[in-house]
Specification:
Elements lengths: L2 E5 L2 E5 L1 E4 L8 H11 L3 E5 L6 H11 L2 E6 L13 H19 L4 E4 L12 H16 L3 E5 L5 H10 L5 E6 H6 L6 H5 L3 E5 L29 H11 L5 E3 L7 H6 L2 H18 L2
Parallel strand pairs: 3-4, 3-10, 4-5, 5-6, 6-7, 7-8, 8-9
Antiparallel strand pairs: 1-2
Helix pairs in contact: 1-2, 1-10, 3-4, 8-10
Length: 281
């Protein structure tokens, strides 16, 4: 779904999305109403077993919002690269998430491929499990979007191994690119597989040589050092028809709560998304 956005007399056709949750107290269904009123046309949520994805999907449909992606769990997921029942169980978590995507008309499941800065090396058992996940998703007409994180090797490994899979895509997180792998241009590597985005801001690697999730702030765009001029150029090249999707944390900065209510923050997020969209044209 594309909205026509009027910016200083120019008409811009771009889908604008946002993560629903954002460390807010407002219930998800009420957040959906607010993001619709603010101007967003799509959204994504995280997934966990038993979460009422069908309720969110029903509310979204009534509001005219697109449920763009589901984000798979990632806590403890490094076991997927190791032999043992834990890795098998994590594969089942992914296939359950895929089933919820399929049942609720959600076309993309976003997933990390590792968690934290240390993980087991890419392995045959990990490749086998991801192969099963990709195959299951294909049967359900769901695309798997691999997201860039701290460790680039596993991402490269999977794209090399399953690059021919038509339902394997890339989720570019520009904030992660800055604070985890600032010397690697992830869009140059995988932009041709781009299916969705996560956009937010931070100040990069604060302590030289130390990669940590503490630098992954999820601020509003333009509140940090992400080069949104480059983001716009990359979107022109690789993501002309890909939504601008924000992944924010309302609790990340005390000033946010001091300046804006939760609803006002969402409206401010929309203004930032519109600014990015203009840079993508």
């Amino acid at each position: 779904m594309y909205f026509i956005i009027l910016i200083e007399g120019d008409i811009i056709m771009k889908e604008l999305g946002i993560f629903v949750g954002m460390k807010m107290e407002t219930p998800v269904t009420e957040q959906l109403r607010i993001i619709k009123d603010a101007g967003f046309s799509s959204f994504f949520t995280s997934w966990s077993k038993g979460r009422p994805i069908d309720k969110y999907a029903d509310t979204a449909a009534k509001l005219g919002l697109t449920y763009q992606t589901l984000h798979a769990p990632f806590s403890g997921m490094n076991c997927i690269w190791e032999d043992g029942i834990d890795g098998d169980n994590y594969q089942k978590i992914f296939t359950d998430c895929i089933d919820d995507c399929s049942a609720n008309g959600i076309g993309i499941m976003v997933t990390h491929v590792t968690v934290a800065t240390v993980a087991p090396s890419p392995s045959d058992i990990g490749a086998y499990r991801f192969g099963n996940i990709i195959e299951h998703a294909a049967k359900k007409n769901v695309t798997i979007a691999l997201e860039n994180l701290e460790i680039p090797e596993h991402l490269a490994f999977l794209f090399e191994k399953y690059g021919d899979a038509s339902n394997l895509g890339f989720c570019h997180d520009c904030g992660h690119n800055l604070c985890y792998t600032p010397d690697i241009d992830m869009m140059a590597l995988y932009g041709n597989r781009l299916v969705c985005t996560h956009m937010h801001d931070n100040f990069g690697v604060k302590t030289p040589g130390v990669i940590t999730y503490h630098d992954d702030l999820h601020y509003l765009p333009f509140d940090g050092k992400v080069d949104y001029k480059k983001v716009g150029e990359d979107m022109k090249k690789y993501g002309k028809n890909i939504p601008v999707t924000l992944e924010l944390n309302y609790a990340a900065k005390p000033e946010y709560k001091e300046k804006w209510t939760e609803e006002e923050f969402i409206y401010e997020a929309y203004r930032r998304a519109v600014k990015i969209a203009a840079m993508c044209e």
